[in-house]
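Support reply, case 0932

Customer input (verbatim):
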Amino acid sequence: MNRRSSPPIPDDLRARIEAARLDLLTLFRALDRMDLTPAEIPQRLIRQLFELDADYVEALWALDQPAGSLDLRAMLRDTLAALEQLSQAKARFRKNLPRRAHPALAELEATIRKSLKPSEAYSMVPGRDPQNG
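Our regenerated output:
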């Protein structure tokens, strides 16, 4: 049987996934602090962001698994696709928020992002203690 070799993992992949998770955590925490009704939050679009976040959690978990235990090619393909979607997904989401929310959201995100620890990218990652990264 001829096995194809696993694709190389880009050196910056973990850092890119961690940054994406922290960006989404920042957005979610900022939204929690805002005075928006559920009707003002585009539910379909926020679900897309939650799904991307779940993809990033899964990818961080996968990076910690023993070599050969996962389909690395599929994980890499799916993770890179999810990373490519983030910018546009966040832009669509913000565009569909009430105009009055934009200044407050930007201010809250700036404050929250500064307070996040890098280890918080690992919250909800199975087998990882977010306090220890």
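We compared this against your earlier run and they match. Two observations from our side: The chain has a mean pLDDT of 91. The longest helix spans residues 72-95. Please reopen the case if you see a mismatch on your end.
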